Amino acid sequence: MRSRLLRSVGLVPAALVLTTIAAAAEAGKSGPSESLLILQIVLLLAVGRGLGEIMQRIGQPSVIGELLAGIILGPSLFGWIWPEAQAAIFPKTPEQKAMLDGIAQVGILLLLLLTGMETDLKLVRKVGRAAIAISIAGILVPFACGFALGEFLPDALLPNPHARLVASLFMGTALSISSVKIVAVVVREMNFMRRNVGQIIVATAVIDDTIGWIIIAVIFSLASHGTLDIASVAKAVLGTLAFLAVSFTIGRRLVFQLIRWANDNLVSAAAVITVILLLMGIMALITHLIGVHTVLGAFVAGILVGESPILTRQIDERLRGLISSFFMPVFFGLAGLAADLSVLRDPNLLMLTGLLVVIASVGKFGGAFLGGTVGGLTTRESLALASGMNARGSTEVIIATIGLSIGVLSQNLFTMIVTMAIVTTMAMPPMLRAALARLPMNQDEKERLEREEFERRGFVANLERPLLAVDESVNARFAAHVAGLIVGMRGLPITVLHIGKPPREQQKARDEADSHEAVVKKAAEAVSVKSEGDAGNVDVVTRARQAELGETIADEARKGFDLLVVGIDKVTATKDRFDRRIDDIAAEFEGPLAIVAAKGRHLKQPMPEALNILVPVSGSGVSKRGAEVAVALAQAGSGSLRVIYVATTRDKGAQRGASRGLSQETGILKDASDLAARYDVDITTTLRVNRAPEAAILREIETTDVDLVVMGVDRIQADHLSFGGVADAVLRQSKVSVLLVSSGEARPAPAEKG
Description:
Helices cover 64% and strands 9% of the residues. It is an alpha/beta fold. The chain folds into three domains: 2-307 and 324-437, Na+/H+ antiporter like fold (Up-down Bundle), CATH 1.20.1530; 447-593, HUPs (Rossmann fold, 3-Layer(aba) Sandwich); 609-754, HUPs (Rossmann fold, 3-Layer(aba) Sandwich). Strands 3-2-1-4-5-10-9-6-7-8 form a ten-stranded mixed beta sheet, with helices on both faces. Helix 25 links the parallel strand 4 (563-567) and strand 5 (593-597). Helix 2 (34-57) crosses helix 15 (313-338), helix 11 (196-225) packs antiparallel against helix 14 (294-307) and helix 12 runs parallel beside helix 14. The longest helix has 36 residues, at 230-265.
């Protein structure tokens, strides 16, 4: 029975192959065929993704599997075993080949877009000095080796021996550039992305890639003219520098505004992705017009898109998914198809390929190690760095493909470079693992990693797009000040939605300097005095209510805002209910809410110079969120921060199961102290366990000089907005301002005692 089953299963792939060959042969009779193109893509996807999965399971990058898929389906294996079948499926007729090449060319641009999106310029700036020194040394040494090898290559390996200079430059570039994608993937998979040496490795690879594409752009211009035309090279260099200068100044702002406009105004599906692809195409055309290769335009477009502060994770994942699942297997599979490894049966070519691998590895390893030593790294760090920088992978394949397409590289040279890229990339992960395993972690690095891990799980550190909904009240101005402090810490863009309908005279009389937008910017600018990077530099967009309140909020909610700050004149209504407008807002916004209620001194001074904050903590997730926001506000402004432990009904139940020893109350206060210490915020802690939570909070307000209570609260499932009795009591009875920060999901109401 088993043998019959095995035979029947074994017939399936054989039947598939025979059917494919028959269809390919039938399609090939009538010239270019769409069905044959689909067959080619299906094979490249199936084999490429399958081998990529296997490679990842054995600790190799998936791109190796995609390259091997092309080699297996190409003349190296399939064409060697069954040349007629391989020629039927992948014919060399120009028309049919051009169809697959067209997809591959688009794939090159999209791959460079993705590489640019993965480029972290902040990381480059952070470790800039060491990374630049390492990158220069790591490029110059292998470039010189590759150039020298190109000068001594036999004429038979060159498509045009008279243009040896261009071929030598291509060889030098191919040997000197690391693949930032491969390096980043391996370092990330090994959980070393945030280690000091991991950051330097990735930053150096980013600089390598950037320099490499500029060099390729110049070489492409040189190859187009056939000779060393100083005027054309100068035009290409100056054009490239001008393009980069405009891109990273005016272009950065323009790309951000275009993405934001598309996200906020276009209602069609995947509108932002369409805009991103259009940006990539336009910038690729610009680089083509100035005489350099289109890949530089796509790479820079990717950097600008990746830096956009409103590139939501959903859009990011969709675009990466399309490129990784379709275009990468097709492009790298096609590169493998173009490489005929059977030529390496020639002992001379095999020896030259081995020499190429040795020169590439020794040159890159030695250059990177030298650069690391000069850059101030230890010997172990330099060894890890040199091991990581030796991966070529996708970058070299793209460079080799460009060289082959413009006639600078011969078919044999292309195969040698692809072989070198595969060998060095496969050798990199085990070498890097071995080097990093021996690398100890110092105390400063440990503290930084703990802080970053905390921020990764945190709320405030992961905010991308806050929305501020306000009317013309004093409370709205205070809410604008609070929102400005939050966004000012990281330079987040914010949208101010005016939901009130002020009289025309009042609207005209309101000075622009006193607008809510101005309040947000003023608060953010005050933050920049204490912070670094993009702090204080916030982009504010104004939107006016155009329909019913619920409809307006629902329309804004679909744009991907991850926090809604509400500041309106009337917060509470009768009994335990919020004002009808807040109910309408909460009903249409499912994400986290921050409801502001200005009281006391903030009614007279809605833009205070300092905030004296009280935050209750209980150990629950929502109270930790409130503590996070309170610490962020304390860090952004000046003033004081007090933390009081209170226990809700749910928390008391949890305490009964807690282990004895260090009391849970003290542990929770210590967690809050540790949180504040991470951001250099001084706090005062208070422990009150024998009072009802609302009574303890109100008592603390009366006996201290706090002027703002920040509470993390849960939404409770009900027919109206509710945060529970404790929050309601504090909101109604407090004499100082209150900020309620809610989670996005509603929890069931607690059961009544019977």
